[in-house]
Design a protein that fits this description.
This is Pyruvate dehydrogenase E1 component subunit alpha. It comes from Cryobacterium algoritolerans. It is a single chain. By secondary structure, this protein is α/β, with parallel strands linked by helices. The protein has one domain: Thiamin diphosphate (ThDP)-binding fold, Pyr/PP domains (Rossmann fold). The chain is built from eleven helices and nine strands. The chain has helices at residues 58-83, 98-106, 121-127, 131-138, 172-185, 204-215, 235-238, 263-278, 306-314, 317-327, 333-356; strands at 3-5, 11-13, 113-115, 192-197, 220-226, 229-230, 233-234, 254-259, 283-288. Helix 1 (58-83) packs antiparallel against helix 10. The structure holds thiamine diphosphate and magnesium ion (MG). Magnesium ion binds next to strand 6. The site of magnesium ion has 6 residues, from strand 6.
């Protein structure tokens, strides 16, 4: 189809498109629904202090700091466990992105949905999933969030409405958009928050998803966590428009860039975006962060010079935010130390729990692969005929 520019610089299609009749969402007519299964015993809880709207006032900032510190100590512990060969597969850390994570998660209601990528441990913990279960998943143990079969990149928890955890760059985007469509279809009040990295904005699914979300007024907030690097490639080497929030304008979607080292700024921007999405106007947020270490735990990040690393460390959100709280008289050294000690103890507890959790039984290897039982038993080799099905082994108990 031919594309032309209007005098105002807006691009319009030269031939008429079929008008989409979906009207803008009206929150007042919406009923709370559980679009998955209204009878399921997975009613979300708000027991986690970092989930839902924080209490107004200074306590909220201390809670942000507490949440950031927990992610920091958890991730450091995960990195150490990886070097001890206790964690298999890939492992990507949220170190440097703690303020972004807590600010975003605080803007969600327990009933809202979260999709994220493989850099996800901090989101899981802050969304309210027990750190023990998150660490157990890293260790591939049966008590893990995904029963030990998913690992670091594939955490899924229906109760906390965290629908992954995706290892394919951008794999979460069409699924998150589809979830938003399902909510809209059922007139639900929930929204979807979908995070991704800066490198993800150059794949087709990014553009397809934003286009359809804007066109159909879907209740979704897309969040680009811009840590300035996609593996070893800087944003300006990968993106013709490195100010990534501007990409939303191609879809007439509202967007905003926010300082990801400041949890309050992230929270406030996320609150605005969530309110807009709930009213049927999707938003793109770009959250500027730093990646303190390599792409994954095995990346020594030699592509950064010593000078660059000094600048990155100067922008570490933990000491930056602590200094602000101290300057404002909201935090003293004693409380800061206590928060650190509690987070360290919590990470140690999670590690001990994970080490003591059993590995999943091998008989469960083919569980969760198909929705219905099929003779996909472990004895048949690829290519062997299907006409003589081997007996279905007894399914494992931990399903
Ligand atoms: C479709 C696909 N292509 C390539 C990869 C390999 N890969 C994994 S992470 C990554 C970089 C993504 O960078 P970004 O989106 O900025 O996220 P970040 O890792 O910085 O959080 C790439 C290319 C992949 N997992 N999936
Ligand atoms: Mg990146």
């Amino acid at each position: 189809m031919k594309i032309t520019s209007t005098p105002q610089g807006e691009r319009k299609r030269s031939s008429p498109m079929t008008a989409h009749t979906r009207m803008p969402r009206k929150p007042t007519v919406r009923k709370p629904t559980n679009p998955v299964d209204p009878t399921a015993a997975s009613t979300p809880t708000s027991s986690n202090p970092h989930v839902g709207h924080p209490t107004p006032g200074d306590d909220r900032l201390i809670e942000f700091y507490r949440g950031m510190m927990l992610i920091r100590r958890f991730e450091e512990r995960a990195a150490r466990a990886y070097t001890q060969a206790l964690v298999g597969g890939y492992c990507h850390l949220n170190l440097g992105e703690e303020a972004a994570v807590v600010g975003l998660m605080a803007a969600l209601q327990p009933t809202d949905y979260l999709f994220t990528n493989y850099r996800e441990h901090g989101y899981a913990i802050t969304r309210g999933i027990d750190p023990n279960r998150v660490m157990a998943e890293l260790f591939g143990r049966a008590d893990g969030v995904s029963k030990g079969w998913g690992g670091s990149m594939h955490m899924f928890d229906m109760e906390k409405r965290m629908l992954g955890g995706y290892g394919i760059v951008g794999g979460q985007l069409p699924l998150a958009t589809g979830a938003a469509l399902a909510i809209d279809y059922r007139d639900g009040e929930e929204i979807v928050l979908c995070t991704m990295g800066d490198g993800t904005t150059n794949i087709g699914a990014f553009h397809e998803s934003l286009n359809i979300a804007a066109l159909w007024n879907l209740p979704i907030v897309y969040v680009v966590i811009n840590n300035l690097l996609g593996m070893a490639t800087t944003v300006d080497r990968a993106s013709a428009e490195p100010e990534l929030y501007k990409r939303a304008s191609a879809y007439r979607m509202d967007s905003e860039r926010v300082d990801g080292l400041d949890p309050l700024a992230v929270f406030e921007a996320a609150e605005r975006a969530v309110a807009s999405a709930r009213a049927g106007k999707p938003v793109l947020l770009e959250v500027m962060t730093e990646r303190l270490r390599g792409h994954s735990v095995v990346d020594p990040a030699k592509y950064r010079t010593a000078e660059e690393l000094i600048l990155v460390k100067e922008r570490d959100p933990l000491p930056t935010f602590a200094a602000r709280l101290i300057a404002d008289g909201l935090l003293d050294d004693e409380t800061m130390t206590a928060i650190d000690e509690q987070a360290t103890a919590r990470a140690s507890e999670a590690t001990a729990f994970a080490e003591n959790s059993p590995f999943p039984d091998v008989s469960t290897l083919f569980d969760y692969t198909y929705a219905t039982p099929v003779p996909n038993d472990s004895r048949r080799l690829p290519g062997e005929p299907l006409y003589e099905p081997a007996p279905i082994p007894e399914r494992g108990t931990n399903q």
